[in-house]
Amino acid sequence: MKLSQIQIKTLITILVALVIVLGIFLRFYQLNEIPFGVYPDEAANGTNANQIAEGENFQVFFEDNGGREGLYVYLVAGVFKLFGSSVWSLHATSALIGIFTLILFYFLAKELFGRKIGLIALFLFSISTWHLTFSRDGFRGILVPLITIGLLYFLIKAYRSKKVVFWVLSGVFLGLGVYSYIAFRMVPLILLLLFLYYYFVQKKRFWESKLVRKGVVIFLISAFIVAMPFLVHSIFHPEDFLGRAGGVSIFNPDLWEGGFIKTAFTSTVKTLGMFNFTGDYNWRHNLVGMPMLNFWVGILFLWGILITIVNFKKTRYFLILTGLFVMLLPSILTAEGVPHALRAIGVLPFIYLLATLPFRYFFRTKKFLSGVIILVLGIVFLASITYDNYRRYFVTYAEKEEVYSEFRSDLRELGEHLNRNSYNSPIVLIDNYSEQSLEFITDENAGYKRFSGDERELDELIKMTKLIEKNFYLVLSRDFLQLADRSKQLKKLEPQETVKNKFDQEIFKVYLIK
């Protein structure tokens, strides 16, 4: 029985909807528990979002906490308005961004290779642990795949249809990109290389078409208008345009190990090897050291690269291969924390387009029996990858003590403890950087004061309080627990409370100073 084209389209539409539901499930399932904590960099986004939600601190670039582009913060503020300020709402913002990324990605893949390939590409992207990890935290880098996909999709639609609305939308996405994350600033290089490819390889002068020339002008004007506030800011604050890039760059002599050439070579090899061999070592980004791709997806990815090389003279293949290597540059050009999954997050759309290309060979069979066998094997294959990725994130990764620690879950437990208990202006021993998490998590009832001195200063504080006969609570955060052994005054006291995490590790202590 042969299905009609309408039946095939309907079936694929249903399957696309089911895959998106799967993507929603993976991004919202146990979101309040995995990850449980909120890292100070995430918390800074949440604190700024609270200020915006309250009608304050409107900026295109937030200079505190090392400097951050503002788009993600404004999106978080919108979610806070709807659901209230919380760790869940902060992480839900990324989850929502991740879901919209999946939807746009399907349309991009369909535009390039048709519905069937679009469906497979969407499926592989939706179960990606790489994308899943950043869809469940509070880092702004999750915007890069979304905006890159939107830019390319609407640009392709604009070129093929010549419709003004698509030129405008593609320009809007390009302009929005400057407000996302520094890695996006490599994207214009993709467009430049694509232009050079058309001219030198395909010998096409697409600008000879009046409609295309008009469209390109509209595209550039739209991008400029949207990006203008950030560009004006960058004129007066040029250091904000590159952010931390200079400090971690391979061009920074302080980071060279064996000279520039060796440093650049090492960074390149580590970055290229992250897909199939050794991945990111940061617990907030990855199950430490594990390849960023599932074994079989990694094989498909390499196969897809070979396909693009063979078909290099076809524009869509050139675009994918160029996009992959350009968006690897933010990782390759740095000499710190390499391989770095967050800096390289812009490669995700290109990875899953490449990994899907081999499936085109399986769709060409005309024999019914062969088609059934391929379909059954394909379902089993994709189901096994799904199960493997699910276990990797929700079982293995989620249960690691290092993940709990690196996301500073101890600070969330401390903050929620302060919210539940009225300590009457307790003094919390915590450093400036970590306090960002505590500041975001605690409410007005906590009313704590920060102290970050050494044991001698702490002893003086306790003595002073005893002299004026004023009781207060002293709370030692995880990083200051050792002061309990070094402080002469605290050695004389027993903690009123010692709180441990689920790994039976002490995470904070509470003392009543009389």
Q: Can you count the helices?
A: 24
How helix-rich are the residues, as a percent range? 55-70%
Give the neighbour order of strands across the main sheet: 4-3-5-7-6
Q: Count the strands?
A: 7
Low-confidence stretches: none
From the alpha-carbon coordinates, what is the Rg to the nearest angstrom? Answer: 26 Å
Element layout with pairings:
Layout: H1 5-28, H2 40-53, E1 61-62, E2 68-69, H3 71-83, H4 87-113, H5 115-126, H6 129-134, H7 143-161, H8 164-177, H9 187-200, H10 210-236, H11 239-242, H12 245-248, H13 260-272, H14 295-310, H15 315-332, H16 348-356, H17 359-362, H18 368-397, H19 401-406, H20 409-420, E3 427-429, H21 432-441, E4 449-451, H22 455-467, E5 472-476, H23 483-486, H24 488-491, E6 497-500, E7 506-513
Parallel strand pairs: 3-4, 3-5
Antiparallel strand pairs: 1-2, 5-7, 6-7
Helix pairs in contact: 1-4, 1-5, 2-3, 2-21, 3-4, 4-5, 4-7, 5-16, 7-8, 8-10, 9-15, 14-15, 14-16, 15-16, 20-21
Explain the overall architecture.
The chain is mainly alpha-helical. It is 62% helix and 5% strand. The strands form two sheets. A five-stranded mixed beta sheet has the order 4-3-5-7-6. It has a two-stranded antiparallel ribbon with strand order 1-2. Strand 1 and strand 2 form a beta hairpin. Helix 5 (115-126) packs across helix 16, helix 14 (295-310) packs across helix 15 and helix 15 crosses helix 16. The longest helix is centred in the C-terminal third of the chain and has 30 residues, at 368-397. It is globular. The termini are far apart. The model has no long low-confidence stretch (mean pLDDT 92).
